[in-house]
Amino acid sequence: MSNNTLAKKSILFIFTCFFILAFISGCSSNPAPIENGEEGLSRELEVHFIDVGQGDSTLIKLPNKESILIDAGKNADSELVVNYLKKEGIKKIDYVIGTHPHEDHIGGLDVVIESFEIGRVYLPRVVHTTKTYEDVLLAIKNKNLKVIEAKGGVTLDIPEVNAIFVAPNSSEYKDINNYSAVLKLTYQDTSFIFTGDAEELSENEMLLQSYTNLDTDVLKVAHHGSSTSTSEAFLEAVSPKYAVISLGENNTYGHPHFETIDKLNRHQIKYFRTDLQGDIIATSDGTKISFNQQPITIQNDTNNLVEIQSIDLKAEVVILVNKGSSSVDLTDWKLVSLNGDQVFNIPVGTILKPGKTIKIVSGSKGQEGPDTLLWTNNNIWNNDGDPGALYDNQGNLVSEFK
Ligand SMILES: [Zn+2]
Asked: Ligand 1 mean position to 198 CA, how many Å?
């Protein structure tokens, strides 16, 4: 055996060892997905709508153990998102999608790209010159990654899962939101659509595209529930069973807008809100989708959940309580003083969380406050006895107090 052959053999040996080692460590860091004993039964897809306040960040854990990250919240959310991914055992993000260059979507993306091994990066083609966006592009460049243009018709090559961008469909828009890369993900019989901040104009374009059917089980509601998105026509085409709204508590934009919540309610779509419920996790086994919590109850299901707990006729204080296990939207519900036939319309956006109470006060001492709504500074309740009734926004009697 010549020295040359020996050298070749030892190199081969080293390579073989390396290959085996890599394979073994690959196995140990990726626990086998089979849990039910039968192959294929327990392969799940998880979608984590991470609570980043007023912003978006969605982690998708694919059945083959790869992952997708769509947006990463604001600059201030970098650490939160990185820690969330680490907690979920993410070491490599196979597909990173920045929907559009607004700070509440791509703010944390530079730090995420620096912190993990990254596969492919998808961004819409848009010129935008903020420090935040430049930071993202720099992080991409520093890792020697290339940007793949996200636009209608582009697919992600993922085994078992169909992932296709259905927007943007034009090359130029006035409003940056309309550049939003919108991804539709289908896993067997279940599907999700992630809309970024796409507005009605882009929605109308999506209605005209022919890459794929828009009909989807779970809709990530566009633009944090703004009324400028989620048009009636788009909602009808998507016809989701569930909707998820990602937004911050008491945000300055008034999101979610009443019009959007009203549409979801009218279409009997069960919805979730990160501002009220924190992280929302949907799990699909390919046939059905389950969530880590109860949706915010739509009006039709609320009978017997919300009650008039008490009416203090002298102090002019009515207390409503939510005895159910999910938050109830009291928008346009009516509290009626039956003797005087006076009606109080509960204001838009009033949410009663499970186990919580809300006061409706009247009379000269009545004052608005936390969990306290002011009806009027006139006296409403007749001290000699005055029953009250509560109606939902469909006019159904929900509760009576005598
Ligand atoms: Zn946004």
From this structure: 9
Express each pLDDT in 109-146 by its tens digit.
Answer: 999 999 999 999 999 999 888 999 999 999 999 999 99
Q: What is the DSSP string of 159-175?
A: TTEEEEEEE--SS--SS
DSSP 8-state secondary structure symbol assigned to residue 249:
T
**What pTM does this model have?**
0.72
299-401 placed in CATH 3.20.20.10: no
- Distance from the CA of 117 to the center of ligand 1, in angstroms? 26
Helices (H) and strands (E) in the chain, counts: 9, 25
Ligand 1 centroid from CA 62, angstroms: 25
Amino acid at position 75, single letter: N
Q: Over the stretch 200-244, which tens digit does the pLDDT of each residue have? A: 999 999 999 999 999 999 999 999 999 999 999 999 999 999 999
Residue 396 C-alpha to ligand 1 middle, in angstroms?
36
- 37-291: which CATH topology? Metallo-beta-lactamase; Chain A (3.60.15)
